[in-house]
Design a protein that fits this description.
This is Peptidase C39 domain-containing protein. By secondary structure, this protein is of the alpha+beta class. It has one domain: Cysteine proteinases (Cathepsin B, Chain A). Strands 1, 2, 3, 4, 5, 6 and 7 form a 7-stranded antiparallel sheet that branches. Strand 3 and strand 4 form a beta hairpin. Helix 1 crosses helix 2. The longest helix is centred in the first third of the chain and has 10 residues. The protein is globular, with a radius of gyration of 14 Å. The protein starts with 12 loop residues before the first helix and ends in an 8-residue tail after the last strand.
């Protein structure tokens, strides 16, 4: 059973998503992020991928070099950061971070949004990912993407 980390700030989805990948609490991950100069109220956290990449690398997690366009749920790796709710404001891209996990063949999305009834989602038709970042432990093989 997965116990999702819920974001404690309206704009903390990136911090919560990394916490969901590495198994830390939101306050633990927020303290690490703040120590690296990353803050939830910085809108760049959900308009620039470098911040979550930095957090993941700090925790021993490698990421694909590029954002990979989403095609189908079946084509996702076993763990990925997904960009959903993609939109533009003043010509700048923004999105909501969620985590895709496949465990023993069962696919789910861990969505840290506090307003959800369930943060472990399988309502794939309701989500429209634009792209994803593949994540893996650093000692695993490098990515093709």
């Amino acid at each position: 059973m997965i116990s999702p980390v819920i974001q404690e700030e309206a704009t903390g989805c990136g911090i919560a998503s990394v916490a969901n990948i590495v198994g830390k609490t939101y306050p633990e991950m927020k303290a690490i992020a703040n120590g690296l100069g990353i803050y939830a109220d910085d809108t760049a956290l959900w308009s620039d991928t470098q911040y979550v990449r930095t957090l993941l690398k700090n925790e021993g997690i490698a990421t694909s070099d590029n954002e990979i366009p989403f095609t189908t749920w079946d084509n996702l790796p076993d763990t990925a950061l997904l960009a959903i709710k993609h939109h533009q404001e003043d010509g700048k891209d923004f999105w909501h971070w969620v985590v895709f996990k496949r465990i023993d063949g069962n696919a789910m999305v861990i969505d840290s949004a506090a307003y959800l009834d369930s943060n472990t989602r399988t309502d794939f038709g309701e989500m429209t990912p634009k792209w994803f970042i593949k994540v893996s432990l650093l000692h695993e093989s490098s990515f093709d993407a």
